[in-house]
Amino acid sequence: MELRHLRYFLAVAEEGQFTRAAERLAMQQPPLSQQIRLLEEEVGFDLFVRLPRGVELTAAGKAFAQHAELVLDTLQQGLAHARRIARGELGTISIGLTSSAGFHPVTTDAIRAFRAAQPDVDIELAELNAAEIIERLSADQLQAAFLRKPVDTPPDVAFEQLLNEPMVVVLPVDHPLLAGMGDTPPALPLRALEHEDFILVRRPGAPGMYADILAACRHAGFVPRIAREVPRMLTGIHMVAAGLGVTLVPASMQRYQHVSTVFCTLNDAANLTAPLHLAYPTVMRNPAAQCFVEFVAAFHARSGVDPAGGG
């Protein structure tokens, strides 16, 4: 039995005659009558009582019509559901983000806007370091991610730079470099940190940013003293607040205003920046994730943020 036979049967049942049903189905009446007769032979009973001016359902035909309608309705519902999945309107996306990437409004605004545009797509967020994100993207455990500067760029992961923002230094509120600053934190040369204890995110977790900080310090004429390595930038800020050293973070992390820290710009470290990337598998198997990636690109273009400029 084929689905077209069910459609033929229901059309005849609804129209009450073969001629009108054939017109509705855009076919000739004799082939339609033949198909109904073949269907009756297959099910083993008469579906219609033939009348001089039409047909009417037999008792068995009425029962069969109810189930045939249910089958076709279920099929249409399933087809509509599948089409929404194919268009990226339904599904689940696992999105990774580093702690610093999550602090930039471009990240949160894009996710919130996508959620409003596609409310039936479930979004799962995971805060990870850059190395973990790339590993999970390659393993298809994440479908998209926001992160800073990766060093390992495997061929199965694409990286799209959204913006580039300056780095700032975080000092404890009672640091000597802040003496007499008033209400405005001073702009500092990177060389002013030569004798400080640096707190950095561990090299395996954020190798790109770690390497950039070391290179910038060497360019400024000194080798930084790495006193502590931490798993997250927020942990580093907390340690600065406790007076355990200084750290460098993307400028957008100034949104995290800890009462015991001060964020200062760097006036001679233009080459020390923190790019923000959208990363995703080069082969997208998740339509909702593909929709998300395309949405973020369009959303970012509308936002007018210069990828090579500030954050």
TrEMBL record:
InterPro entries (UniProt xref): BudR_PBP2, LysR_HTH_N, LysR_subst-bd, WH-like_DNA-bd_sf, WH_DNA-bd_sf
Family the entry assigns: Belongs to the LysR transcriptional regulatory family.
The HTH lysR-type domain, residue ranges: 1-58
GO molecular function, one term: DNA-binding transcription factor activity
Keyword vocabulary terms for this entry: DNA-binding, Transcription, Transcription regulation
Protein name from the UniProt record: DNA-binding transcriptional regulator, LysR family
A GO term from the CC aspect: protein-DNA complex
Keyword Cell membrane: no
Entry-linked Gene3D superfamilies: Periplasmic binding protein-like II, Winged helix-like DNA-binding domain superfamily/Winged helix DNA-binding domain
